[in-house]
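Weekly sync, protein design subgroup
Attendees: M.S., D.O., the rotation student, P.L. (late)

Item 1: inverse folding check
M.S. brought a backbone from last month's batch and wanted to see whether the design step gives back something sensible before we order anything. D.O. pointed out we never logged the input encoding, so this time it goes straight into the notes. Structure tokens as presented (174 positions):
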């Protein structure tokens, strides 16, 4: 893992678009702690409001609280992934069955306009455009950001999303 911390990102740093969710323990505190932890690897540019969402894929669990944030970070993509996985581990994330409950889940949605297909890391996130719980928070902070592969904005992807899961704004971030 990259050991240097990029507190003052240069012009070469990418805007990294992240989706964060929690559905166990103190969900809001988990989100706030994770954003604080992310600030140790880059500059937090913007954070969406907090949304409550139905669980996706497996309904027999608590609702999630979800946010999106933009992190300006100069890490190489796989170093960034490793740093994020380490934050999840420190916060008690246990990897179990797909769509299982979690203290925190941090997904990389975009790294600037990069297209990445590496073992363990696909960017843009391959399924985010099908998930309202990712699109609603992203709509708030980056509606005009254009998907580098699809050529559509977040706003356009949001309008065409057929995900029936309910997503409700709970409160503003600050």
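Designed sequence read out in the meeting:
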């Amino acid at each position: 893992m990259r050991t240097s911390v990029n507190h003052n990102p240069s012009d070469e740093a990418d805007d990294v678009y992240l989706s964060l969710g929690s559905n166990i323990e103190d969900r809001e505190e988990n989100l706030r702690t994770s954003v604080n932890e992310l600030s140790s690897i880059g500059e937090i540019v913007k954070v969406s409001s907090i949304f409550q969402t139905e669980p996706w894929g497996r309904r027999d669990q608590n609702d999630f609280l979800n946010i999106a944030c933009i992190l300006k970070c100069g890490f190489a993509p796989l170093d960034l992934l490793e740093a994020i996985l380490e934050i999840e581990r420190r916060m008690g994330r246990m990897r179990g069955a797909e769509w299982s409950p979690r203290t925190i889940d941090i997904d990389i949605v975009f790294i600037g306009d990069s297209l990445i297909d590496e073992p363990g890391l696909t960017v843009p996130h391959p399924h985010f455009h099908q998930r309202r719980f990712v699109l609603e928070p992203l709509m708030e902070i980056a509606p005009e950001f254009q998907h580098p592969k699809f050529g559509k904005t977040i706003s356009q992807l949001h309008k065409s999303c057929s995900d029936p899961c309910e997503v409700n704004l709970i409160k503003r971030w600050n």
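Discussion: The two ends are 31 Å apart (CA to CA). The CA atoms of residues 92 and 103 lie 6 Å apart.
Action: P.L. to compare against the previous round before Friday.
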